[in-house]
Automatic annotation (TrEMBL):
<keyword id="KW-0805">Transcription regulation</keyword>
<feature type="domain" description="RNA polymerase sigma-70 region 2">
    <location>
        <begin position="12"/>
        <end position="76"/>
    </location>
</feature>
<dbReference type="InterPro" id="IPR036388">
    <property type="entry name" value="WH-like_DNA-bd_sf"/>
</dbReference>
<dbReference type="Pfam" id="PF04542">
    <property type="entry name" value="Sigma70_r2"/>
</dbReference>
<feature type="region of interest" description="Disordered">
    <location>
        <begin position="77"/>
        <end position="97"/>
    </location>
</feature>
<protein>
    <recommendedName>
        <fullName>RNA polymerase sigma factor</fullName>
    </recommendedName>
</protein>
<dbReference type="Pfam" id="PF08281">
    <property type="entry name" value="Sigma70_r4_2"/>
</dbReference>
<keyword id="KW-0804">Transcription</keyword>
<dbReference type="InterPro" id="IPR039425">
    <property type="entry name" value="RNA_pol_sigma-70-like"/>
</dbReference>
<feature type="domain" description="RNA polymerase sigma factor 70 region 4 type 2">
    <location>
        <begin position="101"/>
        <end position="153"/>
    </location>
</feature>
<dbReference type="InterPro" id="IPR013325">
    <property type="entry name" value="RNA_pol_sigma_r2"/>
</dbReference>
<keyword id="KW-0238">DNA-binding</keyword>
<dbReference type="InterPro" id="IPR013249">
    <property type="entry name" value="RNA_pol_sigma70_r4_t2"/>
</dbReference>
<dbReference type="InterPro" id="IPR013324">
    <property type="entry name" value="RNA_pol_sigma_r3/r4-like"/>
</dbReference>
<dbReference type="InterPro" id="IPR000838">
    <property type="entry name" value="RNA_pol_sigma70_ECF_CS"/>
</dbReference>
<dbReference type="InterPro" id="IPR014284">
    <property type="entry name" value="RNA_pol_sigma-70_dom"/>
</dbReference>
<keyword id="KW-0731">Sigma factor</keyword>
Amino acid sequence: MDSFSIRPELPRLLPALRAYGRTLARSAAAADDLVQETILRALRAETQFEPGTELRAWLFTILRNVWLGQARKAGRERRALEAQRPEESRPASQGDRLELDELARAMAELPLAQREALMLVGVQGMTTAQVAEVVGVAEGTIKARVSRARSALRAALVHRAGPDLDRTNTHSSS
């Protein structure tokens, strides 16, 4: 009988799971529910985890499958995600917060597949190969999604900043 347990590793992975859950569910409460269900399923299936493989990727796969199952069951999850809009802008005196709000709005406008790939690669620090395994697509697909997401964010942020920023960035003389 193997004595390996995933339990000691779970606490350090909770923040990453929650962040990924938030990426998919776009709500802190829904993300917490996803993480809870993920942990329960992982503990029930602990014997299926292969020691020596990456626990984070295994848990992310479970979390994604839980989310997809909930989306299919609800039948309206995707429409609800697309219908949500970020809150209105903050007062101009909170400049840093305004920039974060703009980024959050631009991220929210990305298609789910691009947002998911960008968050896993850019925020979670996973490799494109790891993300491809979690999502169940080819690594090249993940690379393309990340590239498209970055381009879309760049374009959205330049557009929101106005034409002056665009001219400054594209026609600099330095």
